[in-house]
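To assess whether the prediction recovers the assembly geometry, we first specified each molecular entity separately, as shown.
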Amino acid sequence: MMIVTEQLKKVYGKEKIVAVDNVNLSVDKGEIFGLIGPDGAGKSSIFRMLTTLLIPDGGSATVNGFDIVKDYKKIRHCIGYMPGRFSLYQDLTIEENLQFFATVFNTTVSENYHLIKDIYCQIEPFKDRRAGKLSGGMKQKLALCCALIHKPEVLFLDEPTTGVDVVSRKEFWDMLKNLKQMGLTILVSTPYMNEAALCDRIALIQSGKILSVNTPEKLVNNYGETLYTVTGGNMYKLLNLLRSYEGTDSCFAFGNSLHLTLKYQTKKDTVVAYLQEEGFKDAAIQETIPGIEDCFIKLLKTN
Amino acid sequence: MIRSFYFILEKEFKQMMRSKGLVRMLIMMPVIQLLILPMAANYSIKNISLAVVDNDHSEYSRTMIHKITSSGYFKLTSFCKNSKDAFNEIENDRADLILEIPHDFEKNLVRENSQKLSVQINAIEGVKAGLSGGYLANIIADFNSDIKTHWIQSQGPDEAAIVSVAPINWYNRYMNYYLFIIPGILVTLITGIGMLQTSFNMVKEKEIGTIEQINVTPVKKQAFILGKMVPYFVLSALVFVIGQIVSYLFYNIHSAGSYLTVFVGMCAFLFSLQGFGLLLSTYAESQQQAMSLGFFFMNILNMMSGLYTSIDSMPMWAKVMTGSFPLSHFIRVMRMVMLKGSSISEVGDHLLIMVGLGIVFNTWAVLHYHKRS
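The predicted structure of the complete assembly is given in tokenized form:
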């Protein structure tokens, strides 16, 4: 076990807002573990506690076997942290930032170059450019290099792909897979459900509570209901109509179609007939494979 | 610790030098201010507009008016027929002061050996009013003794003996105003860099979020803080030296005492001042907050540290307060060493207090800065 949390809790301010509510997690060595949840779910608070920036208000946690409260100094030697917001020195160049973070960890760039080689070679042509002048994708690569340069055992990536274009995002996940091959444990958070499928295991989190921990495949397989996509006609009117329909279990917008689950006795054909009767002549209903977002919405409903 | 301190220092110098505008500004601004401020921040009042109502038109009244205008402090702006006209001059801001000479001024003075003059002063500007009234009283007293001497010569010995005072101004013989004010101005100029810039530099890391990245590293907070302070210490010291050169070249001010003592004083001063700046930065969340706090203290320090006004004439509580300002101690040290030529042991008390304040501020700041929250 690389990361273990037991009843981890964080409460903010005089209003006693519970940001992290008795969270139990365990992350194995060498896995990519995803924390998936909307903004404000408590992901960053968990990250900040595990990276020893924030002292928990309850429970306990260990990283690489070290307690986050007592042995925080030891943890700082063996973790790499990439905060949600770009936080390198904008007035230093790529090379200077990298060198600075290597030296504060008492190492050199050349010593651990093999770890960052694949990533660094992409930004190396611009190594004399100041970090503040880089594009979003390049900043993110530099931040990853700086978090890796001291050869950490665990990598904490807090929303690394937020605000980054689709191509860079895909590249980034490829990089994470390579790092995993090298034996690193990676805890990553993201609000994007489609990225969840790229993790080995994911924890769905909402309002500081963990809803479920599973592999993406099992999570989808455990969906347990038949899911339909509905298309045709004015989506907004269709959604309202289906929500008021007595045979509907749940219905929500999903891209340019609707995702629908039905109550036990209701048949698909009955719904089609009902919709045509209501004037949606082109309405079509098809069975579909649920995604992680569907699972998340279902979990939210049951909790 | 020492290794990481060295790397932080290297990074800080790089960042400071890279912001070329800032360094240029921080060096140029004090020089410009040193060239401008001493001219403006001058206590001697000149060009006082004077309105005269001469109801006598005698030999004596003319001599007196001539004596007043030739003093160099007053300029005669109007000759009025009556006091009503003269008051009008004050109302319209054309006169600061009215001197009214009564009828039979000369006659009564000669016959009855006494006469009264009326002086009206526009007191909107307190200091100016006080000083100009004083000047005028002095000149009239002088005129008075002149006519007495004149009578003694013409009429033989008089019963009234004349007491004359000849003051000697020690340490600043000619009451050179620059000698008094420039060392003080120099101190306030490096206060801006030592206190404000140190705290901005620290808060900047919070504001742009880099402090998060530093906090997860094993870097010791002492090394980090020290690394951030040293560059601005060097810059302040550089400005201080440049300021000394400027005041030598332009105002011919050179220290009566040892420059080494002045420099030792500066080190003690910057130590306490930067500690204070650091302390501010641990309480401020953004550069804007640090700026507001900094200006709040800058104003208090400038006005209460004995630069413009005498600490001795402040109420007791204010005196106690100024005792905790590094600025008032260093201004004192500067004046004692540069004007009086005091040795290091004579300013020792002030140096020790500054170092003591420095220890308090710095310890407080380090204790209040947490790598974890």
